[in-house]
Design brief:
seven-stranded mixed β-sheet; binds coenzyme A
């Protein structure tokens, strides 16, 4: 029990205590204190039970509140198994290009991961071309939690990274134009992206029947 209490969270129990005494204490501290008071008979069974019940209720509320919580961060080598699974899952579905584990390790710095309940639930990387433009690649979110904001969070994280690097344009080739439109990208044509053509398209089996659409995000200024 490490969560800290806020006054508004403490369900009022009919005890003659000053609530300020509990400020900056964790729920664990509160329980320990009540336990000691109970042991020394300064707190009767009834009040001790009420405190235990209140603590359980607070914990259940916090747990419920955090259920949907997720965040995006820089990928680490310790994410590599989950990252590899995510990339290979979407590659098998034909949505992304397959990538070897060694390639993921070498490029770990370019990856961001979305984490929920200590598990990687999404990923993508920002590939910077010699020209200074960048591409979002290997974007994928767990098939179990689609359409819950993780994809947007990952893209926004990478765009903010690109902005800090003063990259002027970020592009993507996708079969999911609706998503990229929702996250602020605008349609372009692949021929406007010579870097991509040189790097991937020239060697692609689908070169002459490409079913992907190019989208770009331009930074102002
Ligand atoms: C594309 C993908 C990453 C989107 O992730 P997500 O977490 O499901 O998307 P989000 O919940 O963040 O969606 C953001 C917005 O896009 C919309 N959106 C997402 N997928 C959409 C779709 N297929 N069609 C229409 N709108 C879509 C959402 O409704 C949301 O709109 P809102 O902000 O107005 O509510 C995910 O569907 C995925 O993993 N797809 C398979 C791999 C893939 O296609 N990768 C992209 C290769 S370039």
């Amino acid at each position: 029990m490490s969560q800290h209490l806020e006054n508004s969270q403490i369900p009022f129990i009919n005890l003659s205590v000053d609530i300020d005494n509990f400020k900056d204490h964790s729920l664990g501290d509160l329980y320990d204190r009540a336990y000691k008071l109970h042991e020394s008979k300064e707190l009767n069974d009834h009040d001790f039970n009420k405190i235990q019940l209140a603590i359980s209720e607070i914990l259940a509320t916090i747990e419920e509140k955090n259920k949907d919580h997720f965040y995006v961060r820089q990928a680490r080598l310790t994410d590599i198994d989950e990252l590899e699974n995510m990339v290979s899952y979407w590659a098998q579905q034909g949505e992304n290009l397959p990538r070897a584990r060694a390639d993921l390790i070498r490029n770990i710095l370019s990856f961001a991961v979305c984490v929920k309940n200590n598990a990687v639930v999404g990923c993508a990387c920002l590939f910077v071309y010699d020209s200074g433009l960048a591409e979002i690649r290997s974007l994928g979110v767990s098939p179990l939690i689609q359409r819950q904001g993780q994809g947007r969070a990952i893209v926004e994280y990478l765009l903010s990274r690109a902005c800090k690097m003063k990259i002027k344009k970020v592009f993507v080739l996708t079969r999911n134009p609706a998503f990229f439109e929702r996250v602020g990208f605008t349609k372009t044509v692949i021929t406007a992206l010579p870097e991509k053509i040189l790097k991937d398209c020239d060697n692609c089996k689908k070169k002459d029947r490409c079913d992907e659409v190019a989208y770009e995000y331009n930074f102002k200024g």
